[in-house]
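Researcher: Please predict.
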Amino acid sequence: MDEMQKEIVKEAVKQIPIKEIYDDGVKTSMKAAGDVVGLLPRAINAALEPLHKWVLQKEYNIDETKKILQNKLNGIDPDLITPPDSYIGVPVLQAISYSMDSDELRDMYANLLASSMISETKHFVHPSFVEIIKQLSPLDAKLLNLFRYNETYPLCDIQEVHTNGKLTPCYHSLFDFKDKNDAFTSKEHLYLTASLDNLIRLGVVLKNKEIFESNYDYTAFENNFMYLGLVKIKNDPQSKLRKIPARIELTLFGKELCRVIFKQV
């Protein structure tokens, strides 16, 4: 390891809060603060601390899940409550135990598990639903939640039309949530397109270029802060931005998923 690498490691470790969670052997190696060989285990242990904490709290998280289920199943006839199928219950319990820090993901798993424990609704719970939620970030989940209110939303791609007639794609899937835009912070708005792409990849929503919202004024996109930013950074000052209208909509699979993970049973 050269001197530059040593300095990088030292600076990185300074940024990591360290707790006394190591055994005496590791503590001994940490005492030599100037020794890079000692710094590396320290950095690794600090990076793995959240996982160590999860292992210690696993039983606690399962107990918390039981409390959440009591709330979800409150009012349900006890005679209708049945054990979930193991291929649903086991992966859900594992997943929810490390999703306690995300209200969105935790609630999705809890609704899914609750539905799988009611004889009248368990047949709606497909095992793929568990894997879908596992591939969602909290922002993805927050975005998907909006489709509870509307199954379609206006969307458009943006092209730059140059003076020579050449077309350059400059942004895809700019969309508007009508009265739900304030559901996201300014920072979250920057990552919504990536979340939307993930929902499309998972087959939950569909970008429909053949059908668009006929009752929506697509010129409203020109007031979108992302659109205004594109105007400022165009490659050709004389070019114009062209909006290609489309819409984003839940697939049939997505409707079944939302019915389970957002349902208040």
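Model: The two ends are 58 Å apart (CA to CA).
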